[in-house]
Amino acid sequence: MPKTGEQPGPGLYVCGTCDQLVRLNDADDVLPPCPNCEGTEYH
Length: 43
Fold this sequence. Notes:
This protein has strands at residues 11-14, 21-24.
């Protein structure tokens, strides 16, 4: 399960807490805290 601060690669990630979608476009992008709830784990 990817977490805030990691670079899991391009794709759509879903917050494990509130299901907010976060899109990363580049391999160098870092997962931010969830913009909706500040959650830190994604799937």
